[in-house]
């Protein structure tokens, strides 16, 4: 299928077949029947995001270009089993936005109808002179507050790659990459965090790591006891750009820790961030690396809130582009998705594979044929109960954000 072809409008089965399973064990097999979900996105829409509410509602967000110029950030909701998205609502619209395939807006859903959303807007003349705007809603998205800058720094330097995570009643935590030191002549990116309350107040900024990769998306997940774990791509003085993480235990942040010493030495930013999901003590993280000139997609598990992780499991087919996502399943296994380039025995597109903490994994399966160009962006995936929702950007003249749902079985 070429890059302009839309999602195939009929059901098809995806089989993730087990391997390395001991006699008597459940094999890693899922029968996923993907059904298209008609999301009312505009032509040339992009930058999709997916979020989960505390009641299981799925929120899709995306950017629509406006006639005559400018952009709008919109969202819609999906209730598991409903079979359709709600009518879209607009969070914000305007001109002077920074719209980019990798640094995308997001929405997060907290308790009691508290929603928070972010997007990027220029604050200077340079190509990457932009900052993060945030808006909040306390009525489930019916109305939105006037936007404010997420960060205290107003320098004309890059601020973006935000992750928003609910943090208990009436609160969110935001993590972002901050380039304020560029304005001082020091080409060093940092990762910072702060809280955002439903009343609009912002907590103090916290520096999490003082040297990170410039433009790889961040990811984070809540942990018990008001905790949080954050993953990002670090950057050492000798240009090793592996995935690191920090944890918040409800009182303080830990020191930065390498997830796994892949040893990827690269002089420029690969624009390829990690993805994580967590439940209770259990955390799973997926990431891309090309260390030793071998591109690969990997996943690792923790059973102690991220204090330690098991060895990485390789999941790709040999030609990965990365841009991963991951969801954890009730049995402790996870489904990892990624973009895979063309190989001798496979089509380029979005692939998925189920993996267990012991390292056993099912076969990789094609979810959706896709271009691996930057225009295809970051495919997204989220689970609500037995529903697995996918979102991706279809490229080409007729391109737009598309979605589909698979109902997990077995």
Order of helices and strands: EEEEEEEEEEEEEEEEEEEEEEEEEEEEE
Beta content comes to over 45%
* Large-scale geometry: globular
Total number of helical segments?
0
What Rg is obtained from the alpha carbons, in whole angstroms?
Answer: 20 Å
DSSP summary, beta strand count = 29
Which secondary-structure class do the elements indicate? mainly beta
Q: Whole-Å distance between the termini?
A: 30 Å
Strand count, sense and barrel status of the largest sheet are:
5 strands, antiparallel
The amount of helix comes to under 10%
The stretches of 5 or more residues where confidence is low (pLDDT under 50) are: 1-26
Mean pLDDT: 91
Q: If strands are numbered along the chain, what order do they take across the biggest sheet?
A: 1-2-29-28-27
Summarize this, please?
The chain has 410 residues and is mostly beta strands. It is built from no helices and 29 strands.
Fold blueprint:
Layout: E1 12-16, E2 30-37, E3 46-52, E4 58-65, E5 71-78, E6 89-94, E7 106-109, E8 115-122, E9 130-137, E10 148-149, E11 159-166, E12 171-178, E13 189-197, E14 206-212, E15 219-223, E16 227-233, E17 243-248, E18 257-258, E19 275-279, E20 282-289, E21 296-302, E22 313-314, E23 320-328, E24 334-340, E25 349-355, E26 365-369, E27 380-384, E28 387-393, E29 401-407
Antiparallel strand pairs: 1-2, 2-29, 3-4, 4-5, 5-6, 7-8, 8-9, 9-10, 11-12, 12-13, 13-14, 15-16, 16-17, 17-18, 19-20, 20-21, 21-22, 23-24, 24-25, 25-26, 27-28, 28-29
